[in-house]
Amino acid sequence: MPVSILVFEDNDLLRESLSSLITLNPDFELAAAYPHALQAKQQICEHKPDAVLMDIDMPGRSGIEAVREVRVFDATLPIIMLTVFDDNMHVLDAIKAGASGYLLKKHISTRLFDSISEVLEGGAPMSPSIARMVVGSMQRLSDNPYQLTAREKEILTALSAGNSYKLIAAQLDISIDTVRSHIKKVYEKMHVHSQTEAMSKAIREKLI
User: Fold this and answer.
1) Do 130 and 43 lie in a common domain?
2) Are residues 102 and 128 in contact, defined by beta-carbon separation less than 8 angstroms?
3) Is residue 115 within 8 Å of residue 80, measured between CB atoms?
4) Domain limits for position 64
5) Cβ neighbours of residue 20 under 8 Å, at least 6 residues apart?
6) pTM over 0.70, yes/no
7) Residue 11: which CATH number?
8) Is residue 112 located within the same domain as residue 15?
9) Per-residue pLDDT tens digits of the chain, which is 208 residues long
10) Can you name the residues that pair with 81 across neighbouring β-strands?
11) Is the backbone of residue 62 left (phi > 0), alpha (psi -120 to 50) or beta?
């Protein structure tokens, strides 16, 4: 039985090319192809596809927003993001939203069906440059789990040395109010409520 594929892609030429590729492959069938994802939930429920190809950047509603909605009612449907973007923000946002894989449009002609087969087997297909980027981002996240900025880490280090807000402000050539604002952000990111808690956690987890 052919694998049913539902396509969301706003570029007319690419949508037609995808539709033709899928239709010409006897192992796959095109459930439908839409130029936007405004009714993604209804269309997925109607067609019940085996997998979805979702453009990341569409008018009215982005593919990331559509994936986020789909994951509310279907946590396992394989969804591969198709995009010209290979920057960290789009990649990580798509993965956090629940995308199953991520394929650059320039690789569609050579990797599309392998990617679909991989995602149906439980894999997470990604173009090589995307995979390298994700690994790099995860490594950076492990080095800085609370996503502290360079200035926030600087202030945290200064606090751990016993420096007062006034001294930190003078050392960094910023106002005391700015120091307080940074420290408040540090507490929020680290989920602590006091300087003592922040210092203890920073030392214990080797943040400073």
Assistant:
1) yes
2) no
3) yes
4) 3-141
5) none
6) no
7) 3.40.50.2300
8) yes
9) 899 999 999 999 999 999 999 999 999 999 999 999 999 999 999 999 999 999 998 989 999 999 999 999 999 999 999 988 766 677 778 888 899 988 889 989 999 999 999 999 988 888 777 777 776 666 665 567 788 888 998 898 888 878 888 999 998 999 999 999 999 999 999 888 888 788 888 877 777 7
10) 54, 102
11) beta
In 10 A of CB 193, how many CB atoms?
10
Secondary structure letter of residue 126 according to DSSP? B
Going through the chain in order, the beta strands assigned E by DSSP cover 3-8, 28-34, 51-55, 79-83, 101-104
Q: Are 189 and 123 members of one domain?
A: no
pLDDT of residue 79: 96
Claim to verify: residue 114 and residue 199 sit in the same structural domain: no
Structural domain total, the chain: 2
Neighbours of 4 (CB within 10 A): 17
Both 97 and 159 in one domain: the answer is no
Same-domain check for residues 127 and 156? no
Chain centroid, CA 159 distance in Å:
33
| Judgement on whether residues 94 and 55 belong to the same structural domain of the protein | yes
Which CA distances in Å does 204 have to 30, 137, 140, 172? 54, 23, 19, 26
Distance of CA 151 to the CA centre of its chain: 25
pLDDT of residue 24: 96
State whether the Cα torsion 13-70-50-85 is positive or negative: positive
Around Cβ 108, how many Cβ atoms within 10 Å? Answer: 18
